[in-house]
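Fold it.
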Amino acid sequence: MPAWAHDTGAAHFETPGWTWDPWIIVPLAIAATLFAFGWRRLHARSSLGAYRLVARARLFAGGWLVLAIALISPLHQAGERSFAAHMFEHELIMLLAAPLLVLAEPLAVMIWAFSPGDRRRIGLLANARPVESAWHFLTGPVTATLLQAAALWLWHAPALFDLALASEGWHAAQHLSFLISALLFWTAMLSRRTAPGIAALCLIATSIISGALGALMAFATSPWYAGYARLGIAPFGLSPAEDQQFAGLLMWVPGGLIHAGAALLVVRRLLRPAYA
């Protein structure tokens, strides 16, 4: 009888396939539809600034596509038998899809998919003091940095990660928390409300926090997660410990470089007036 990381009905010796889970497909389809209808309506009303709308569309398409690749492509099922593949999936969601989607500012486009009356009602709701206060709190740079760090460290604790490996529901909760915390984090880092110096410090702190977790995995000599340990040899002939070490390197090196690179870009913006 085959061993399972997630009980999805696909044996782990089979080639990974596509994941057509309606709980993933439907939200992705709704987001794409709202953006497309809103963008079309907004583009028809815009004479100046149309090029910015085109840029937003490209950024949204890029972020949406990366998210779809992470959650639907065979990479998702490959993550059920390899922790390194699972880590790569998480990196795509948090380090590529999330910042692209934030840069696209999709909510300001999606609202145009609704009728004028609905837009007014949504605007009133969004501008209500409790909603506005909660949004400002959650997208504050320190709050967003702490939330993302908490999501990373808590979900990689063996008890919670094994829970996600054993249950599709908890696995979805894990991915959703990674996506939401990353969206809040990149919203804070890219917001004009955030001082460049604060953003740079938060990015460097995140590079250290995620890098430390990745380094602990990379130097561990035994697997942390029972769900992967009982699968035995991972793809490419890696033992569970080696597969985990590779996953740790993926979190440590590329993840650290992206956050450090973003911090350098912010610092460059901070220093630019000094040379003007």
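Residues 77 and 227 are 14 Å apart (CA to CA).
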